[in-house]
Write a structure and sequence with these properties.
This protein has 420 residues and is an alpha+beta fold. 35% of the residues lie in helices and 23% in strands. It has 3 domains: 6-175, Roll (ibrinogen binding protein from staphylococcus aureus fold), CATH 2.30.310; 183-280; 294-416, no CATH class. It contains 9 helices and 17 strands.
């Protein structure tokens, strides 16, 4: 996937200035990959800022957000949530001197906020400015005017860019930042933090401050006069306190410094061992943990299908079993339903933020069709429509026939049966 060119960015800005004009910012999602800003007008638009360092890109989706909230809170997300949420989209403006840099202006009658979006490869960033404060996704670099491109490539249309990006996600190409690079980046941060702590400990150990406190205490003990204490010992005394108090305080402070140095020496040895161990550590991919057994938790009967991603699909034996599975499912699990076939429901139980490729969704759909429907109603080449929606958007209809539900924010996939 190539980053947006200058001409493509200009087309993006012109188009979505009209589409998003007056829309209210209602949702902010931040993860390791970038930001998703949810704007509500007549429909819900999602502006996705994919901040992959070499190929940053901006896209807008209608009623669908491909990004999920990350496990860790991002400072930019928090700041934008505090200063930009519920403001109205005013305009997007390209900062002409710097090339692929856009200012997104949000405001209402009382306050305003500017989101500076830098889509320059290897310099991509998002910087939020509000109420005289700023916070950045990455440490901002100095920007210069971009070089003139003599033979720019033929610009892609907005539809082509979206299709190209979505195709990469379906194929599993770069679903997030390279995990090895992420791990190495975090390792260097941890090493830098530990080395700074090591320097502070070494300074603390090599100080002779306790000698100054001892000297001040001995001087007061021998001379008995605070007013005549030498200038270099003056910081150790409090002239508002008594002679006795100052003597005791000086000796106590001297003992505290010695005690801290002993503790710092012990901590220094531990920290040096941690640094050595971390320097020798190498990246090791973690296996995807399987989610707990949903069938057992729901005390339901039915069938299940283990997927390559580590997720598990469940199909209840009856409407009551399907309802029990739905009630035990996590809000981020997927609920699948074959359109025009009542009762054909399944749930994909997964880890939070675990990506389930469309290939697996279609695999579950075909499995669901064979598990739920009569073989007489199926034939090779038959086309089926499948609704896919997170279970948090599915609600059983109270007082209605068991198994009937309402849902929203769904996706629809289409399946061609391979065999009956």
């Amino acid at each position: 996937m190539k980053a947006l060119t200058q001409q493509e960015l200009e087309t993006f800005v012109d188009h979505f200035n009209a589409v998003l004009s007056g829309a209210q910012l209602q949702d902010i999602i931040a993860n390791d990959r970038g930001l998703a800003l949810g704007f509500r007008l007549q429909v819900h638009f999602w502006m996705v800022l994919d901040l992959i360092p070499n190929t940053p890109i901006a896209l807008v989706f209608e009623e669908y957000c491909p990004f999920k909230k990350g496990p860790k809170t991002k400072p930019v997300g928090l700041f934008l949530n505090s200063h930009g949420k519920n403001l109205l989209f005013d305009k997007m403006v390209i900062k002409e001197p710097y090339g692929r840099v856009v200012d997104l202006h949000l405001k209402n009658s009382q306050k305003s906020c500017v989101v500076e979006i830098r889509l320059i490869p290897k310099q991509c960033n998002v910087i939020v400015h509000a109420e005289g404060k700023s916070i950045a996704w990455e440490k901002p670099l100095d920007m210069k005017a971009p070089p003139v491109v003599e033979n720019p490539p033929v610009p892609r249309s907005i539809v082509e860019i979206h299709e190209e990006w979505l195709t990469e996600q379906k194929q599993g190409v770069k679903p997030s930042l390279d995990p090895v690079a992420q791990w190495e980046k975090q390792k260097q941060k941890d090493l830098e933090k530990k080395r700074r702590a090591l320097e502070e400990l070494q300074k603390q150990i090599h100080t002779d401050k306790e000698l100054l406190w001892y000297e001040a205490g001995e001087w007061l003990k021998v001379n008995g006069d605070i007013e005549q204490i030498p200038a270099h010992l003056l910081p150790c005394v409090d002239t508002k306190q008594t002679l006795r108090w100052n003597m005791e305080n000086c000796f106590t402070k001297a003992k505290q410094v010695v005690h801290k140095k002993d503790g710092a020496s012990d901590r220094l040895q531990i920290l040096m061992g941690e640094i050595t161990k971390l320097e020798q550590t190498r990246y090791s991919p973690k296996q995807q943990q399987r989610a707990p057994d949903l069938m057992k938790a729901a005390d339901a009967k039915g069938r299940k299908l283990h997927l390559p991603s580590g997720a598990v699909a469940y199909c209840g034996k009856s409407a009551a079993d399907n309802l029990a599975l739905l009630r035990q499912a996590k809000s981020w699990d997927f609920w699948l339903h074959l359109k025009d076939f009542p009762g054909a429901h399944a749930i994909i139980h997964r880890q939070r933020d675990q990506l389930i490729p469309d290939s697996e969704l279609l695999e579950v759909s075909e499995w669901l069709a064979h598990e739920s429907l009569s073989e007489k109603s199926l034939y090779p080449g038959q086309k089926l429509a499948i609704v896919v929606v997170e279970t948090r958007f599915v609600r059983p209809i109270k007082g209605d026939k068991l198994g009937r539900v309402n849902y929203h924010s769904e996706r629809t996939l289409f399946l061609t049966l391979r065999h009956s």
